[in-house]
Specification:
The chain is an alpha/beta fold and 280 residues long. 20% of the residues lie in helices and 27% in strands. The chain is globular and about 50 Å long. The two termini are 26 Å apart.
Length: 280
């Protein structure tokens, strides 16, 4: 598939952009997974065998069945030992980072877009953020989810334009508590894209999480994927649009989270038409 990527830090750049309609009857397919943690807790230097090359062997064939694959990266990509003065929350907190070389296996697995607005993206301050963004960019993976850096991204494959945005209550995220503010991003993307995908993570009460997801659909989102818990959460169809409220931990070989031993590992595949509707 031919692929074009455009990333935006400000919504104003999208003003006036109009997408071309895909061929009649065409559909687009997506694979979605939850959080990805390919490393042990810092300062351990442990990484999976072969730098993680085999982590996604079981999923790769499914990712490649779809046009787009989306996941949530739960750590930074950074080589070396950064100064503790850059660390978020101080050296006593849990910090997660994997070598930059691990990005190659994400690309080999088939990931197109990764949400990086997670609670660990600023573990090592701006050096960790900058390294993660540069590494993913150089590997050919699109990042979304950081305010002022990669708020939204538009990816085009074979004439089908998809807008991605991610909302998070984590530091530096776009925020997942203000539906009106989120709607502004979604409306701008909808005007420029055939399909809009929203990812969000929030620790709010269940009814507030559902209200936020519904507001995203009301604003124009075609698919909404939540990362609101390390457990797998429910899903629903709202106004003929699919919403998942949590895909859990997809990859955590070192069990950095106590739930990894008992977490399910779903891989969600969705097909939508040019109107963003699930086919009958």
């Amino acid at each position: 598939m031919n692929r074009t990527v455009v990333s935006f830090a400000l919504m104003s750049f999208l003003a006036g952009a109009v997408h071309a309609a895909p061929p009649e009857g065409q559909r687009v397919s997506f694979s979605f997974v939850g959080d990805i943690v390919m490393c042990d807790k810092y300062p351990s230097a442990s990484i999976p065998k072969s730098d993680g090359k085999h982590l996604f062997e079981g999923a790769r064939k499914y990712f490649r069945q779809t046009d787009f694959t989306f996941g949530s990266l739960g750590h930074v990509l950074l080589d070396g030992d950064p100064a503790t003065s850059e660390w978020q929350n101080g050296p006593e907190a849990v910090h997660l980072k994997a070598p930059q070389s691990c990005a190659a296996w994400l690309k080999d697995a088939g990931f197109d877009v990764l949400d990086i607005g997670t609670e660990h993206i600023r573990d090592f301050g701006s050096p960790g953020v900058d390294s993660t963004l540069a590494t993913l960019r150089n590997t050919g993976i699109t990042a979304v989810g950081l305010k002022g850096l990669c708020e939204t991204s538009i990816v085009t494959k074979d004439g089908w334009t998809v807008g991605f945005c991610s909302f998070s209550s984590s530091a530096g995220g776009l925020g997942a508590s203000d539906p009106d503010a989120a709607a502004e991003y979604i409306v701008a993307l909808k005007e420029a894209c055939n399909t809009v995908v929203v990812s969000f993570r929030s620790g709010a009460e269940d009814h507030l999480i559902q209200d936020f997801a519904h507001a995203c659909v009301d604003a124009g989102a075609d698919i909404v994927v939540g990362h609101c818990s390390d457990f797998v959460a429910g899903a629903e169809i709202y106004k003929d649009r699919f919403i998942s409220y949590g895909l859990g931990l997809f990859c955590d070989p070192f069990k950095t989270n106590d739930l990894s031993n008992r977490a399910m590992v779903p891989l969600l595949q969705i097909v939508v038409d040019a109107e963003g509707l699930l086919p009958p």
